[in-house]
Specification:
With 230 residues, the protein is α/β, with parallel strands linked by helices. It has two domains: 18-28 and 39-104 and 140-219, Phosphoglycerate mutase-like (Rossmann fold); 105-139, no CATH class. It is 32% helix and 17% strand. The protein has six helices and eight strands. The protein has helices at 50-63, 77-90, 112-118, 122-130, 142-159, 171-182; strands at residues 18-24, 39-40, 43-44, 70-73, 95-96, 164-169, 197-203, 206-214. Strands 5-4-6-1-7-8 form a six-stranded mixed beta sheet. Strands 2-3 form a two-stranded antiparallel ribbon. Helix 1 packs parallel to helix 2 and helix 5 (142-159) packs across helix 6 (171-182). The longest helix is centred in the middle third of the chain and has 18 residues, at 142-159. The radius of gyration is 18 Å and the shape is globular.
C-alpha cells in the first residue's frame, strides 16, 4: 500500500473574500519654487508628470487581462489619470470613493511637504521619528486617518464579496492599510513606488497581505529616490 503524500498547497482566497489590487498613482507633477499646487477640498491636486502618464500606461498593460470587477479612484486627479488607461481598455467606469484620498497634511498641503522634507525641516524629521503625519500643524489626526482607511475598505468589501477590484490610491493611504493588515509599525509600508501594485485579500475581519510594491511592469527609467507620499 502506497504512502499518502501531502503536497504543499497554493494560496487560494477563502470563499466570499474580496481581493483588492492597490495601485499607487503615477508620479505627479513637480513642485517648483514657491508655487503651490491647486487645491481640491483643501488638498494638493497636481496632475501627473509625463513619466507618471507613462507609468499609468504600464499599469494598464499589466492589469489589462487580470480578472477585475470594478475600479476605484480617490477624489484627487492623479488617481483618475493613473486609472484612465486601464479603465479605457477594460470598459469599466471608475467609482470615486472619497475615503481613498491621501492623508491631509494641514499647513503643508499644496506641495509644501516635498519642500520641507527635501530641506530637512525639523518637523519633517519628527514625522519620521514619531511615524505619524499629524505632527504637521493642522494635519489629519492619526486615529481619524486610520478610521477613514478602515471605512473605505469596509465600503469596498461590502460592495464586492467574492470579487476582485483595482483600487487607485495614494502612498500614505496604502502604507496605513498595510500596517493595519499586518499589525506593523505605522510607517512600515510608507514609501511605495509610484505606479506600484499591492494585493490584499479581505475576508471578514482578516486582511491578508499577498503582495507589496510590485514594480515588475516598470522599467529602470522610473527608479527614483524615495519621495514624500503626495
Amino acid at each position: 500500500m502506497g504512502t499518502t503524500e501531502y503536497r504543499q498547497q497554493r494560496f487560494t482566497p477563502p470563499p466570499g473574500a474580496t481581493e483588492m489590487l492597490l495601485v499607487r498613482h503615477g508620479e505627479s507633477a513637480a513642485s517648483r519654487g514657491g508655487e503651490l499646487f491647486e487645491l481640491r477640498d483643501g488638498q494638493g491636486d497636481p496632475e501627473l508628470h509625463p513619466d507618471g502618464r507613462e507609468q499609468a500606461e504600464r499599469v494598464a498593460e499589466r492589469l489589462e487581462h487580470e480578472p477585475l470587477d470594478a475600479i476605484y479612484v480617490s477624489t484627487l486627479r492623479r488617481t483618475h489619470e493613473t486609472a484612465a488607461p486601464l479603465a479605457a481598455r477594460r470598459g469599466i467606469e471608475p467609482i470615486v470613493l472619497a475615503d481613498l484620498r491621501e492623508v491631509h497634511l494641514g499647513e503643508w498641503e499644496g506641495g509644501l511637504v516635498r519642500k520641507h522634507a527635501g530641506e530637512g525641516h525639523p518637523v519633517a524629521l519628527e514625522i519620521q521619528r514619531q511615524e505619524r503625519w499629524d505632527v504637521i500643524p493642522g494635519a489629519e489626526p492619526a486615529a481619524a486617518f486610520r478610521a477613514r482607511v478602515q471605512r473605505a475598505v469596509a465600503t469596498i468589501v461590502d460592495a464586492h464579496p467574492g470579487q476582485r477590484v483595482a483600487v487607485f490610491t495614494h502612498g500614505a493611504w496604502i502604507g496605513e492599510m498595510l500596517a493595519i493588515a499586518t499589525g506593523a509599525r505605522p510607517f512600515a509600508f510608507v514609501g511605495a513606488d509610484n505606479a506600484s501594485i499591492h494585493q490584499v485579500v479581505v475576508v471578514g475581519d482578516r486582511w491578508i497581505l499577498r503582495r507589496y510594491n510590485d514594480t515588475s511592469h516598470l522599467t529602470d527609467a522610473f527608479s527614483v529616490a524615495p519621495q514624500p507620499p503626495t
